[in-house]
Amino acid sequence: MYVASKMFLTRGVGRHKEKLVSFEMALREAGIAAFNIVTVSSIFPPNCEIIPVSDGLKELSEGQIVHAVVAKEATNEHSRLAAASIGVAIPRDRNKFGFLSEHHSFGEEELDAGNYAEDLAVQMLATILGMEFDAQTNYDERREVYQLSEQIVESMQITQTAEGIGGQWTTVLAAAILLP
């Protein structure tokens, strides 16, 4: 049975006249272009350790199949802002699973996109923990409820934003790379 024991977060932006190549360039900037990426759903495995990108890359070999939660967005419109975010929510009981969320959008600044992705992950975790909260309240109010509950020990996000440049594709990418 394969359950990831480590994970790292990474991000990148790529620009090129071809959409596919701009995606490749974003993968390169994120440091993950040399791998065969298989996208998976959004579970943060029990007892998984978050490690630095540099440490995670040392554990991988070129061409290796890598499982990842990926958010990406692309635009070829001049000055159009694109965002891609991964949110993470980890329960206090590390023997239980948490959540990863992917969010991609246009017109959202980095902080807003990142907060949204983080909030999505926390909301998913909160619902399986049986926490009560009002989904209509703003993120800062919900964050206070989550922190006071002490059931969610940590949440975070990684976000990449970039504005489109006329005549080129701009691709933004954020990813959570899961390692054995």
CATH superfamily name?
A: Pyruvoyl-Dependent Histidine Decarboxylase, subunit B
Number of helices: 4
How far is the N terminus from the C terminus? 10 Å
Overall spatial form: flat
Proportion of residues in extended strands: 35-45%
- How many domains make up the coordinates? 1
Major sheet strand order: 2-5-9-1-4
Instruction: List the helices and strands in order.
Output: EHEEEHEEEHHEE
Keyword list:
180 residues, alpha+beta, Pyruvoyl-Dependent Histidine Decarboxylase, Chain B, five-stranded mixed sheet, four-stranded antiparallel sheet, 4 helices, flat
What does this structure look like?
With 180 residues, this protein is an alpha+beta fold. The chain has one domain (6-179): Pyruvoyl-Dependent Histidine Decarboxylase, subunit B (Pyruvoyl-Dependent Histidine Decarboxylase, Chain B, 3-Layer(bba) Sandwich). Helix content is 27%, strand content 41%. It is built from 4 helices and 9 strands, in the order βαβββαβββααββ. It has helices at 19-30, 53-58, 110-128, 139-149, and strands at 6-16, 36-39, 43-44, 49-50, 65-75, 81-91, 98-106, 152-163, 169-179. The strands form 2 sheets. It has a 5-stranded mixed β-sheet. Strands 3-7-6-8 form a 4-stranded antiparallel β-sheet, covered by helices on one side. Strand 6 and strand 7 form a beta hairpin. Helix 3 crosses helix 4 (139-149). The longest helix is centred in the middle third of the chain and has 19 residues, at 110-128. The chain is flat. It starts with 5 loop residues before the first strand and ends with a strand.
